[in-house]
Design a protein that fits this description.
The chain has 270 residues and is mainly alpha-helical. Helices cover 28% and strands 6% of the residues.
Length: 270
């Protein structure tokens, strides 16, 4: 049996015509190319597609988006990706020393590049070279300026990091990672104590990903998102990206009007 999600009983905003909705989707800077395909497919199914008895617009949109990798419906992945949530930066992950960002502790001495000598079982003076090495020639333009090493430019250590300290923004709850090497554990301890109280009082992170389907269509999206992303939870800031705070003092003032109510939103695949 097919499960459907009825539209919530709420005050309806002025509806857009199909051309107006398409223009709004293309003008929305938050919409990526795949999310744009999803929104346009749903808009087509709601407004232009020939309705079939017992088939919801979302089922029609699922058909139009086709499959990928031979069997998985693209619609399922795109709806799951549109679930509103906070996506932390990549550098906040628990990286190993070789993949983590460089140590950000202050640099005390200027970094000087020292090339490593190739290991040899013989004494360098005893090695007889077959031929002399050619002189190195570097071709540069007349206005060439030697690049400044980033460690000297930013005055940071830059060594391989082994310890991560997470800092939460007291206004948005967003996370910033600070990385330190083994030589700067004291610096890491100091930063940890500095951000401890701030992290304890930080709010739930404001979502920065997804939430675009509710900006244009009315449906019980919480149930739809939950079906395609079982471990997902509704954020306290709401489902619609238009309703999320964009700065400290105020929320987004411009709101996208809904096109129309989706009468039924099928969850199960065909």
């Amino acid at each position: 049996m097919l499960h459907s999600v009825p539209a919530p009983a709420e005050e309806q905003r002025p509806k857009k015509t199909f051309p107006e909705l398409v223009a709004a989707i293309y003008e929305d800077d938050r919409v990526g190319h795949e999310t744009r395909e999803l929104l346009l497919a749903v808009a087509y199914a709601v407004d232009l597609a020939k309705r079939e008895d017992g088939v919801s617009p979302l089922r029609l949109a699922r058909r139009k988006l086709g499959v990928e990798h031979g069997r998985q419906a693209r619609y399922d992945r795109l709806v799951s990706a549109d679930a509103p949530r906070y996506k932390p930066p990549q550098d906040t992950a628990d990286w190993g020393p070789s993949g983590a960002p460089g140590c950000e502790a202050p640099r005390l001495r200027r970094y000087v590049y020292r090339p490593r000598q190739a290991p040899s079982p013989f004494d360098d003076e005893a090695v007889v070279r077959l031929r002399p090495l050619p002189e190195t020639i570097v071709h540069v333009g007349p206005d060439h300026v030697d690049p400044v090493d980033y460690r000297n430019e930013h005055r940071i250590c830059g060594a391989n990091s082994h310890r991560r300290v997470l800092e939460k923004d007291p206004r948005t709850g967003w996370i910033t990672a600070h990385w330190f090497c083994k030589r700067h554990t004291d610096q890491a301890d100091r930063v940890t104590e500095q951000v401890r109280e701030q992290n304890d009082q930080a709010p739930e992170p404001i979502p920065n990903t997804g939430g675009l389907l509710p900006c244009y269509f009315n449906a019980d999206w919480a149930k739809v998102y939950k079906y395609y992303r079982p471990r997902w939870e509704v954020p306290q800031y709401g489902l619609c990206a238009d309703d999320w705070p964009t700065d400290v003092a105020s929320a987004r003032s411009t709101m996208h009007s809904r096109m129309r109510v989706i009468d039924g939103a099928d969850l199960e695949g065909e």
